[in-house]
Design a protein that fits this description.
Layout (H helix, E strand, L loop, with lengths): L2 H10 L6 H9 L1 H23 L6 H17 L13 H11 L12 H15 L9 H8 L4 E3 L5 E7 L6 E8 L2 E9 L10 E3 L3 E7 L3 E8 L5 H10 E3 L2
Antiparallel strand pairs: 1-8, 2-3, 3-4, 4-7, 5-6, 6-7
Helix pairs in contact: 1-3, 2-3
C-alpha cells in the first residue's frame, strides 16, 4: 500500500488487520492519529445506531452494506461487512432517500380495539385512591391535549397513557358503583376506521370525533352508556 491507500484504509476500514497496514500504524504518527479518530467515530456511530436511531430492518442493513461496498470499490479499498459503521455518516442521506428507516413507531391503528384492550389493562393496573383528583391538577395535565374540564365531577383517577403506542389522557369516572373509562385522544395518528359504537364480550364503547381529537368512552357491557356520555360531552371543553 502507498501512503494514500494507507490513509484511505485508516478512515474507511479502521478494523483492517493486514500486516502492511498494522506495520504502517506503528511507524507513521499521522496515520496512527487518523486511525484512532476513525475508531472513535466508528464507536460513536455504533452507539448512535444502537441507542438513539430508529430501528433498522435486516433489509436496511443489507442496503447499507451494499452501498458501502460500492463506495469501497470506487476508492479501491475493501470494506468488510463488520466495518460498515466507519462510513455510515457519509451514507446517511442515501439511506433517507431509500426510506429504509422505520420512523413511525408501531401503534394499534384500530382505535376501537385499542380502547377495549386499554380498558381491560386499566382495570388491572389503575390504583384508585380515596382522594379524587383536583380540577386544577386535571386541567394542568389536559392542557397539552387541547382539553379542559368544566368540573371534576365523578373523576376518580387520571393518567397520561401511551398504551399500545397511542398517547391519550385516560380518566376513570365512577358513577354509583359503575366505572367508566374515558380517553381524550389527540389527532396525531391515523386510524384504519372510526366507529361510533363498538363492543366485545366484556365492554362496550362509543367514540365522538371533535375538531382536535376523539372522546372515547368505555363501560362494562351490561351498563348503559348514553346518559353518561351526554354528561361527559358537556364537561369536556376542547380548546381551539
Amino acid at each position: 500500500m502507498n501512503k494514500e491507500q494507507l490513509m484511505q484504509t485508516a478512515l474507511a476500514d479502521p478494523h483492517c488487520q493486514e500486516p502492511a497496514f498494522l506495520n504502517a500504524l506503528d511507524n507513521d504518527p499521522q496515520l496512527s492519529l487518523a486511525h484512532a479518530q476513525a475508531l472513535e467515530n466508528d464507536k460513536q456511530l455504533q452507539q448512535f445506531f444502537e441507542n438513539s436511531a430508529p430501528k433498522m430492518s435486516s433489509q436496511a442493513l443489507d442496503s447499507l452494506y451494499a452501498i458501502s461496498e460500492q463506495t469501497s470499490k470506487k476508492s479501491n479499498v475493501l470494506t468488510p461487512k463488520f466495518g460498515y459503521m466507519a462510513i455510515a455518516a457519509s451514507l446517511f442521506i442515501t439511506l433517507f432517500s431509500l426510506n429504509i428507516f422505520n420512523y413511525q413507531d408501531e401503534y394499534n391503528n384500530d382505535l376501537m380495539a385499542h380502547a377495549l384492550s386499554h380498558s381491560a389493562h386499566g382495570d388491572e393496573t389503575a390504583i384508585i385512591s380515596a382522594q379524587a383528583p383536583l380540577l386544577t391538577d386535571l386541567n394542568a395535565e389536559l392542557k397539552q391535549y387541547g382539553v379542559q374540564l368544566a368540573n371534576a365531577a365523578n373523576v376518580v383517577w387520571s393518567k397520561e397513557c401511551d398504551f399500545e403506542g397511542i398517547k391519550s389522557a385516560h380518566l376513570i369516572y365512577q358513577v354509583a358503583k359503575t366505572k367508566y373509562d374515558v380517553y381524550l385522544v389527540p389527532k396525531t395518528l391515523e386510524y384504519s376506521a372510526i366507529a361510533t359504537s363498538f363492543d366485545n364480550e366484556k365492554y362496550h364503547g362509543t367514540i365522538e370525533e371533535f375538531a382536535n381529537g376523539y372522546l372515547v368512552i368505555v363501560s362494562p357491557i351490561n351498563k348503559a352508556i348514553e346518559s353518561f356520555k351526554r354528561s361527559v360531552t358537556e364537561q369536556v371543553l376542547w380548546q381551539i
